[in-house]
Write a structure and sequence with these properties.
With 250 residues, the chain is mostly helical. 43% of the residues lie in helices and 4% in strands. Helix 3 crosses helix 7 and helix 4 runs parallel beside helix 8.
Length: 250
């Protein structure tokens, strides 16, 4: 009614009823979430993901282990769920171990290396590929353009197994936390998370260029944390020496 019959000369509503909320400070404030895979659950959860089984695993098709591999992908890369689910094989360079997200939240393409284990996971999926999607839809029939969209049921099942539920965005928060515990500098972390440095706020960030070799080392270190090869939760002198040894070995 308001849209059809209201005019500038004779408005049906002379004031915006929503304005009262601002005046009375009545907007509902949503608290930022802080959930992530902490040291008490991260290894148990990771093993549950690796060992996850469902009826699709009985097949030897592109749909096999799709949900498990999406979870591993998000855990290892810290990417957003939609970026992983919609990934195309054209954006995966298995020979060089590089992924490209062409249409990201900040509007810029995000090109980054991945760790050794994730490369092997994707190589296995490539041998069974049926269409242009890395993670095709799990429901039959699937078309050329259809890809997986949600892994909520799988996350719920794994959460019940380990008595700790996390969302895909919690994996992103975990990824950032691991980066911090591994003492990556802030520009490496921003680069891996595809967070854009604002020129007016951080002039230096616009100049810093990070070699792909360093990023690849960082991604392998993140995989090593999940695999319990690096204990980033222990900040004593022994941990620091082991961290140095890992970097030299790479």
């Amino acid at each position: 009614m308001h849209v059809l019959y209201s005019t500038d000369e004779k408005p049906i509503l002379k004031t915006n009823p929503i304005d009262v909320i601002s005046i009375t400070v009545g907007w509902n404030k949503i608290k930022s979430r802080e959930r992530y895979l902490n040291r008490d659950v991260i290894f148990k959860y990771y093993k549950a993901v690796l060992n996850y089984q469902d009826e699709l695993n009985l097949e030897d098709t592109a749909r096999s282990n799709t949900h498990r591999d999406i979870i591993l992908f998000v855990m290892y890369t810290g990417c957003r769920r939609v970026e992983a689910c919609s990934l195309k094989w054209d954006d995966v360079d298995l020979e060089n171990g590089v992924i490209t997200f062409a249409d990201t939240k900040n509007g810029k393409s995000h090109c980054f290396p991945i760790g050794d284990h994730l490369i092997e996971v994707l190589k296995g999926r490539f041998l069974l590929k049926e269409n242009d999607r890395v993670f095709p839809a799990t429901k039959i029939p699937t078309s050329w353009n259809v890809h997986a969209t949600t892994i909520d049921k799988t996350l719920k099942r794994i959460g019940e197994q380990v008595d700790f539920y996390v969302s895909t965005h919690d994996f992103r928060r975990t990824f950032a936390t691991i980066c911090n515990l591994l003492r990556f500098n802030i520009y490496v972390t921003k680069r891996l998370l595809n967070h854009t440095a604002k020129a007016r706020v951080d002039v230096t960030g616009g100049y810093v260029q990070i070699p792909m070799e360093e990023l690849r080392l960082c991604m392998n270190m993140i995989e090593a944390v999940y695999q319990e090869k690096i204990d980033c939760f222990n900040h004593d002198a022994v941990w620091i020496e082991r961290l140095k040894e890992f970097k030299k070995a790479e």
